[in-house]
Design goal:
There is one protein chain. The chain has 15 helices and 10 strands. By secondary structure, it is α+β, with helices and mostly antiparallel strands. The chain has 3 domains: about 110 residues, no CATH class; about 110 residues, Tyrosine recombinase, N-terminal domain (DNA polymerase, domain 1, Orthogonal Bundle), CATH 1.10.150.130; about 190 residues, Orthogonal Bundle (hpI Integrase, Chain A). A 3-stranded antiparallel beta sheet has the order 1-2-3, covered by helices on one side. Strands 6-7-8 form a 3-stranded antiparallel beta sheet, with no helix packed on it. Helix 3 runs antiparallel to helix 4.
Length: about 425
């Protein structure tokens, strides 16, 4: 069996072809419809584009070639290669490279739908940003090797809308890559802070998404503007003292007698979140399609995290066991995140989580205090925060908690958990003889 990508030379430019052979009677050839500027851009030994390259979208071309290789290898793994025929390979090839049956253009790579043209159109940041959202919602990112998640796309679209509003504020119709510089950054931050009155963390999120899209565009040779990488073009951020629920409060929630089945389901899903640390999307995926395994008489939850693609295994503790036992071994039924957020506050109120709670955050450049009964601040994300904080207080090492939570660095982890300085000092004094 033989499979390879190779160049087919044309009068002006070359195209990337594919050939598959499996015995004398099985042969499949097709064009990827990818056009390259120069044969020097192609590495024949590695069967991929050289980087950097004079060909537009060279990095994305490599991404598509790798995607096809991965699918073909999966097929070879599942099936005996002796029985793999043209139809199976053609199906995979069409899935990755088919461009609605259109022939390859001599001047652009159709599947990316971005013209390789001169002039201002190719320098339009907004045009690229809109294409970016469409393309990477269907095609794997060259960095994460997967399509953008629904949550990431929502945040990216929100950031784009903010940029468009800023353009309207300035009464400009086009934003070019080279416009994104120190002057733009300062005026944009001023607009988000003083005109829109956004929180510091939301402003940071918008800046981060701007930097992400600029980074992709730079790697795809859309521009040479590196201002977005400079120190001044930073993602502003602040640590907010959002509440968590301690063990006593969680016990009170578990002990509540809830006659209404929907409230009972909300409570149980929330408690599972408080005892697994799963992000809400992963938690609800687990509720819909649970995977519980057993090893050494211990039941474990196994799940692949959407955000990081990491596979995690979480022990089922006594709280989750009680939830399973009262439901005859079954998990609670799936409920949408909005329904959980709608009811969890009233459940916490009934559990007497009513002490006043205060936190500060920067809004419109000013520190604003938010003070309400604690139950009013509780939402689905409180469950994950509660797990991490309670696990830390229990003495679980941070690296073990992070293996479940998916936090990449201890700095981010310690900003995330809610450990009171006084409580931490008391813990240190009891744990270490030197401090006694």
């Amino acid at each position: 069996m033989k499979a390879k990508f190779y160049l087919r030379k044309g009068s002006e430019k070359s195209t990337i072809q594919f050939e598959f052979r499996n015995g004398k009677n099985s042969r499949f050839r097709a064009s990827t419809n990818f056009v390259i500027n120069s044969d020097n851009d192609w590495e024949s030994n590695k069967q991929k584009m050289k980087l950097p390259s004079s060909t537009v979208n060279a990095k994305l071309i490599n991404s598509k070639l790798s995607e096809f290789d991965n699918l073909l290898n999966d097929l070879l793994y599942r099936e005996n290669d002796k029985y793999i025929g043209n139809d199976s390979v053609r199906e995979i090839f069409s899935k990755v490279f088919d461009v609605n049956g259109k022939p390859a253009s001599k001047f652009k790579n159709e599947c990316f739908n971005v013209a390789s043209v001169e002039g201002k159109l190719s320098e339009d940041f907004i045009t690229y940003y809109e294409w970016f959202l469409v393309f990477y919602s269907k095609n794997n990112s060259p960095y994460s090797k997967k399509i953008l998640t629904k949550g990431t796309l929502t945040t990216l679209k929100s950031a784009l809308n903010v940029v468009k509003q800023f353009m309207g504020h300035l009464k400009i119709k086009t934003l070019y890559f080279d416009d994104i510089n120190r002057k733009f950054y300062n005026e944009f931050i001023d607009y988000l802070t003083n005109e829109k009155k956004y929180t510091k963390n939301y402003i940071g999120t918008v800046i981060q998404k701007l930097k992400t899209v600029m980074g992709y565009a730079y790697d795809e040779d859309k521009h040479t503007n590196l201002e977005y990488k400079k120190n001044y073009f930073s993602k502003v951020t602040e640590v907010i003292n959002h509440p968590y629920l301690n063990n006593e409060e969680l016990i009170n929630i578990e002990k509540l007698v809830l006659e209404d089945e929907e409230l009972n389901t909300v409570r149980d899903i929330f408690l599972i979140g408080c005892n697994t640390g799963l992000r809400i999307g992963d938690l609800l995926d687990f509720i819909k399609k649970p995977k519980i395994i057993s090893k050494d008489n211990t039941k474990l939850i196994q799940i692949s995290q959407k955000k990081t693609s990491n596979s995690v295994v979480i022990p089922i503790n006594s709280v989750i066991k009680r939830i399973l036992d009262k439901r005859d071994g079954n998990l609670p039924n799936y409920l949408h995140q909005n329904i959980i957020n709608e009811h969890i506050k009233s459940i916490c109120k009934r559990a007497k989580i009513i002490d006043n709670y205060s936190y500060y955050r920067t809004e419109g450049g000013v520190k604003v205090e938010h003070s309400e009964p604690k139950y009013k601040f509780i939402c689905t994300h409180t469950a994950r925060r509660s797990f991490c904080t309670n696990a830390y207080y229990s003495g679980m090492p941070p690296h073990d908690i992070m293996a479940i939570s998916g936090h990449k660095t201890e700095k981010i982890f310690f900003n995330y958990i809610k450990v009171e300085m006084k409580d931490n000092a008391i813990r240190i004094s009891k744990e270490y003889p030197f401090m006694q």
